[in-house]
Amino acid sequence: MISIDYKDRRPMYEQIIDKFQQQILCGVLEPDSPMPSVRSLAMELSLNPNTIQRAYQELERSGYIYTIKGKGSFVSD
C-alpha cells in the first residue's frame, strides 16, 4: 500500500501522512472506506505503532480521516 523512503530526511510519520493524503485526494481511498489498523500497518512497514498512531492523529486533525472508537479509522468525505 505505502512504502517508506529511508533516504528521505523527513520523519517517517510525515511520509506516511503524505502518502495517505495523496491516496485520498486521488480517489484511491474512497470516502468512508476503512484505513488499515495501526498494528497491521506498523507490522507491514516494520515501524513502531506509535509512529503510525501519530500519523493517523495528524490526518484526523487535518480532516482527512475520522475515528470511531472500537471500530477504527475511516476516510472522510
Topology:
Layout lengths: L11 H14 L12 H8 L3 H14 L2 E4 L3 E4 L2
Antiparallel strand pairs: 1-2
Short synopsis of the structure:
The protein is mainly alpha-helical and 77 residues long.
Average pLDDT, rounded to a whole number, is 94
Helix content: 40-55%
Shape designation: globular
Radius of gyration: 12 Å
Strand content: 5-15%
Count of alpha and pi helical runs: 3
Order of helices and strands: HHHEE
Which structural class fits the helix and strand makeup? Answer: mainly alpha
List keywords for this structure.
single chain; 77 residues; mainly alpha; two-stranded antiparallel ribbon; 3 helices; 47% helix; 10% strand; globular
Q: Overview of this structure, please?
A:
- With 77 residues, the protein is mainly α.
- The chain contains 3 helices and 2 strands; from the N terminus they run H-H-H-E-E.
- A two-stranded antiparallel ribbon has the order 1-2.
- Helix 1 (12-25) crosses helix 3 (49-62) and helix 2 (38-45) crosses helix 3 (49-62).
- The longest helix has 14 residues, at 12-25.
- The chain is globular, with a radius of gyration of 12 Å.
- The two termini are 20 Å apart.
- The mean pLDDT is 94.
